[in-house]
Amino acid sequence: MTSVVTLLIVVALIAVSLGVAVYTRRSARTSSEFYVAGQNISWLQNALALTGDYLSAASFLGVAGAIAIFGIDKTWDGLGYFGGYIVLLALLAVPLRKVGKFTTSEILTTRFKGSKSLRFGGMMGAVVISTFYVVPQIVGAGALLQLLLGWNFTFSVLVIGALVIAYVTTGGMRATTYNQIIQGVVLWGAMLIIMILMLGATFGFNPGDVLAQADNMIPPKLASALLANDPSVPDFTTLTPEEAIAFVSGKLTGQNTALTPGTFAPNWMNTMALAAGLVFGTAGLPHVLTRYYTVRKPKDARTSTIGVLLMIGTFYIMTVFVGLGAMYVLYPELMGYFLSGKSAIAQNMAVPLLAEQTGGEIMLGVAIGGAFCAILSTVAGLLITIGTTVSHDFYKEVINKKASDRREVAVAKLSIVAMGAMAVGISLGMADQNVSYLVTLAFGMAASIFFPVLFMSIWWKRYTREGALATMIVGLIVSVVFVVATLGEVDSVLGLPVLVNPALYSLPAAIIAGIAVSLVTKDVGDVENFMRKAHGKTE
Amino acid sequence: MLSNILNRSNGRSGDGNIILLATDGSKPALTATKKAIELAKATGAAVHVVCVKEDVMRTPLEQKGEDVAERDLIGIHSKGGEVAMEWAALSSVPSVLKVYDSGPVVGAILDYARQIDPSYIVLGHAGRSGWEKISLGSVAEGVMKHSPYPVIMTRGYDDAYIADILELAVAKLRIPEEAEEEIPQVSMEDLHLGKKLGIAFGTLLAFLIPYFGLGAISSLSVGTATTKVLGDANVAVIWILLLFPIGWVTAIVFHRMASTAEGKA
Q: Is the C-alpha dihedral spanning A518, A524, A525, A529 positive or negative?
């Protein structure tokens, strides 16, 4: 249970960020100022909105949190989240903007007109990927409430789930875009402040010193697993970081240090699976694609994406140092949490705990408040994407073509409640998982279900309606089977070893299925007009 | 007093008077439209209609959520201007239409007012309350507060009063909003798909090779990856930190090459 000061800061930060978002939207209607120039939405605003949508609990809590317990092997998460935008930039961003469609269902039915099965496949894919993306956000929020108020995880998850669903279905659909812009700025700034405070308090403002310390530490996740049944293990919480590190290093000589790769993904297959899932996943994430709707011109799609790359790239560089610094500063606490069975806190709470150690109650409040804001805005973005897909792409187009706007919004809200409840249910079983790890699984699915079908639809003239369907079905089935297997700790499926990410199997399988089926079928859809739209000059 | 305002000529004589009508096509705005045109006819003034499209960052569902918040109104919005022009023509009142493609709505209305120096402004009050008013604000109140010109505000609407103009508005609504998009008529060869994909993949590889290269060296040659090269920083750490700037350069080079290619096309 933390102090009243911290709690007040958390509540104030959430209230202010929501308030500013609503105020900004309102003043876009009612401000009496009018300038003829500069009224258009700039690429910078878009870049910030994309950044705010993208930096979720996984990035703010999970990436540095995972580096703090696994060492540099977990920089893959940040690298992959970053690299994914380069793939999106090079292969999809501009064609998507030119076609003017931003959900997979709509893009596919623009080329393959009137295909109900592709619409259905697009909806299923979006629901599965987004639900898996919502789960880690709720797990992160649950762990935060546990830390903030001392509630147990189940109760925390139920409360946060109910709050988030209520927020999105009542007022949360309004001003979401402005909320994302504010989140982008808040999270980036919070990470910078935490890094500066940490470097100043412990490392004499020398990032090199962080690496020097990291080279002497055995990552807590590895160390706690190896020492779990060792009777000589002391009560770590009574030790200083130096004492705790010296004890573990003395006991476990020759083990991987925080700067040794391979602690999380232990061989080339696991490493490549993770790398592929992450770098090709962003381009298939429904809530990322939807956000390009607010980009006005095709050229802005590129400049906005470059803006995002600058923002998130610098953010993930900071997480490398914050994560490794947190491992040093919090070494006794992290070992203590793991050995006493409180892995939910050890897995995800390094950033708030580090903020508290370096900046006291106020910085703890800023870190938790910032994380809550990230979770709220990302979950709102995801649930709205689910709502749009189910209500517009499926209900309105397939089930009831005459549905009014009001009915469409009602269906969207209903689907948001249903998917939110399902995500809460799944979250209850995921307490001990790192939130960034769970998000990497959603990336793996997006890389398999949507990336290949979008890429081939946009670039390959011979791609067929049946080929597109086969790509999505194979990507969906293979990735879901391997995600369930990895979460269920199954060693192999059909003789294939289960890896940390499904993409090494599901991505090639989806591509091969798409190519093979396309080669034996003929319906290439309205390919000429589609290609003209996607690649023609329409500035 | 009222007749002074209604006949306020701003130095112009006779039929030079201008009434500025602001409309978004909603039912309260249709009420204001009808009222403004009645006043113009009675006083021999011309009506200038101003219509402001809201160009704000919204996703489709956000937009629909806001439209549903206005469920008591009729969602013809940008067509409000056309309805007013037709109604004015039917009433034989001279009229001019001005459309702004972006807001702020209040600012744009006042901007146009300053250009035409109207006798007064007429607009409808939507009658929003509670959360809807907090989140969207009131354009009518904003204009009232900031306008240097007299403002006549109609409040709410009476279905019987607007029945005839509403019929006209609904007929407009039935015409599809977006005409069929124009598709550039170029041959498949002129799209240079292969060349564009080549540029995309070529630049992408500049990032993907070192990216997967890090995976390869980390898993297949841990000895090399952990060799110290700069103080305590080993090959893997340096490689990780370099991948970010490599990504930035790749993105910027791609942008420049794609822009040049588009310029030539």
A: positive
| CA–CA dist B181, A536 (Å, integer) | 13
3-state secondary structure of B152: strand
Pick the CATH number of B2-174 from 3.40.50.620, 3.30.450.20, 3.40.50.720, 3.30.530.20: 3.40.50.620
Give the span between the Cα atoms of B241 and B238, in whole angstroms: 5
Contacting residues of A for B245, CB less than 8 Å apart: 313
Judged by a CB distance cut-off of 8 A, whether residue A98 touches chain B is: no
For B113, list phi and psi in degrees, rounded to 5.
-60, -45
Distance CA A24, CA A90 (A): 32
**Per-residue pLDDT reduced to its tens digit, B7-64:** 665 545 445 789 999 888 788 888 899 999 999 998 888 999 988 877 666 766 666 6
The whole-angstrom separation of Cα B118 and Cα B114 is 8
Which residues does residue B98 pair with via DSSP β-bridges, in sequence order?
B50
Confidence of residue A478 (pLDDT cuts 50, 70, 90): very high
Nearest CA in chain B to A77: B240
Indicate the number of domains in chain A: 1
Complex confidence, ipTM: 0.89
CA dist., res. A131 & res. A423, Å (int): 6
Cα–Cα distances (Å) from A496 to A17, A96, A502, B216, in that order, read: 47, 36, 11, 20
Q: Which of A174, A203, A280 to mutate to test the interface with B (most CBs of B within 10 A)?
A: A174
Q: A390-409 pLDDT, tens per residue? A: 887 788 877 887 777 778 87
Q: How far is A352 from chain B (nearest CA, A)?
A: 24
Residue A512 lies in a domain: yes
Domain spans in chain B, listed from the N-terminal domain onward: 2-174, 189-264
* Average pLDDT value for residue range B81-96: 89
Token pair of B232, please?
Answer: 């305590």
A127 inside domain: yes
> B207–A539: do the CB atoms touch at under 8 Å?
no
CATH number for the domain spanning A141: value is: 1.20.1730.10
Task: Name the token pair of A126.
Answer: 């979006």
Establish if A267 touches chain B: CB-CB under 8 angstroms.
Answer: yes
Residue A442 one-letter amino acid? A
Q: Give the residue among A120, A136, A137 at the shortest CA–CA distance from A399.
A: A120
The residue type at A27 = S
A152 lies in some domain: yes
Domain span including residue A456: 4-27+41-258+279-535
Closest CA to A145 of A256, A1, A248: A1
Angstrom distance (rounded) from CA B132 to CA B143: 18
* B256 contact A CB<8A: no
Question: CA–CA separation, B43 vs B55, rounded Å?
Answer: 35
What does each C-alpha distance from A147 to A125, A351, A356, A361, A386 come to in angstroms? 34, 12, 12, 13, 30
Closest CA to A386 of A121, A58, A51, A123: A123
Peptide bond into B104 cis (omega under 30): yes
Quick: pLDDT tens for A123-174: 889 999 998 889 988 888 888 888 788 888 888 889 888 888 887 777 655 5
Q: What pLDDT, on the 0 to 100 scale, is given for residue B132?
A: 66
Measure the CA–CA gap between A368 and A59, rounded to whole angstroms: 14
Which of A39, A213, A282 to mutate to probe the B interface, most B CBs <10 Å? Answer: A39
Chain A residues close to B250, C-beta within 8 Å: 86
Choose the mutation target among B26, B50, B57, B220 for the interface with A, i.e. most A CBs under 10 Å.
B57
- A472-475: long-range contacts (C-beta < 8 A, 24 or more apart)? A472/A118, A472/A121, A472/A122, A472/A125, A472/A510, A473/A121, A473/A513, A474/A506, A474/A509, A474/A510, A474/A513, A474/A514, A475/A125, A475/A445, A475/A448, A475/A449, A475/A450, A475/A506, A475/A507, A475/A509, A475/A510, A475/A513
